[in-house]
Amino acid sequence: MSETLPRSAAMRRNFLAQILHGTFGQAGQRLITAPTFMPAFLLGVLGSEFLVGLCRSLQALSAALSPTLAAHLLGRRQQIKSLAIGMAFLARVPLLLLALLAAFGSGPLLGLWIGGVLVLFGLCQGAQQVALNLLRARTIRPGRRGAALGARNFFGGLAAMGLALWLGSRGDNNSYSLFFSLAFGLTALGVASLLLTREAPLAPQASALQNHQLKDTLGEVWRLTQSPSPFRTFLGSYSFTCTARMALPFYILFLTTSGNAAAAPDAELIGLLSAIWIGAAVLSRLPLGLLADAIGGVRVYRLGIGAWFVGNGVFLAMSLGMPKSLTAVVIGLAILGVGSAATELTAQNLVLELGANDAAPQRLSATTTVAQFLVALSQVLGGAILQYAGFLALAGTAGLLLFLALLRAGHLSTPSRGP
Fold first, then answer.
1. Residue 303 resides in a domain
2. What angle do CA 396, 338, 120 make, to 5 degrees?
């Protein structure tokens, strides 16, 4: 092993830092990433489902550009805590800019300004995702990562669920400035809590990474995606799930606008649906993390894709004429939320476990780059499918992609784990 994990006392401190980061940082992050408030905000400004998809696509595409640089900068350092936290703080600035635009922005150029900020947000998010996952890999033992990830998401999700209900209960369709301000403040507090982390330096033999050039990192990332390995099998499956995310921003529009893109989604309904979505993930994250530690992340990853497929099927049935009753909507969103949560939760840990520890930055870079590129492509494709072919075609395409992801995941072996 080319890295030394902290001792038990520091490990407990690191576990606490992860939980605090989850309670604050994940609360704000979940408000932003939930497929509810942000798509509704963009639809209100842009008035077109295709443009909503295009904006989300540009954000994801920009997030595909920065992970390799982040992996290069972090992978060659013996200690990464300061740089990782700095990258995370930088990713909070676009949220503040969005809050200011939502409060004071107007006129025909508002959409362009928002698109530019989302591109900046994507660049920062791509680097942050590599940085924070690598920091977790260096400070939490493999056998405890599922519990750590589950706990931080559990507490953060509880806070986000309460905030979503509160924001929706205001009944104010113009309260997005408050929404972005809360997301900025909470995520900044979450990053600040990571200052509690104690990090052990890399073992001396890993310091050779300091002589690596950026082209070396790019070459290693490329080899990871080309050489047959359990990681490449996982990446193939995960790529299908990332493409299936084309439908996620549009479930909320399907449920709240009745196909009329010119109609602003109802704020109270958005708050309720956000709480259901986040609540499903909240109640499942901690048990899923513990289950992944007990039976292996690969099995939970497969279960997650299967649940995601079933949840998507509920909305596919609605598009075929099944009534949009509150019970059906709650069941569909809950299954969808649990499935996507299980898939993402276990995928984050599988990236760290499917290979040597000293190659973790390159695996994180490859996964984040491929994932964000596919999300970028799928978001604009999803918006186009919804605009020109309807929700039935969109949900059907997402279901096919999830089925292919599950088939690919069937060839994935369970990685061996350390203590």
1. yes
2. 80
Residue 300 falls inside a structural domain: yes
Q: Which residues contact 37 (CB under 8 A, 6 or more apart)?
A: 31, 164, 167, 176, 179, 270, 274
CATH number of the domain enclosing 173: 1.20.1250.20
Q: For CA atoms 362, 364, 368, 370, give the dihedral sign.
A: positive
Q: Alpha carbon of 145 to those of 3, 124, 202, 241, 307: distances in Å?
A: 16, 24, 19, 22, 22
| The pair of three-digit structure tokens given for residue 116, joined into one six-digit string | 């530019």
What does 57-104 look like in DSSP terms, one character per residue? HHHHHHHTTSHHHHHHHHHT-S--HHHHHHHHHHTTHHHHHHHHHHHH
Residue 51 in domain? yes
Residue 112 CB-density burial (10 A; 0-12 exposed, 13-18 middle, 19+ buried)? exposed
Total-model pTM = 0.65
What is the rounded CA–CA span in Å between residue 282 and residue 280? 5
Q: Which residues contact 411 (CB under 8 A, 6 or more apart)?
A: 233
- pLDDT 10s digits, 103-152: 888 777 888 898 889 889 888 888 888 888 888 877 877 767 767 777 77
| Per-residue pLDDT tens digits for 192-230 | 988 888 877 655 544 444 555 555 555 655 566 566 677
Q: Record the tokens describing residue 89, joined without a space.
A: 């703080």
The answer to the question of residue 169 being in a domain is yes
Name the residue range of residue 131's domain: 8-409
* Domains of the chain: total: 1
Terminal-to-terminal C-alpha distance of the chain: 12
Both structure tokens of 90: 């930088």
Contacts of 416 (CB under 8 A, 6+ apart): none
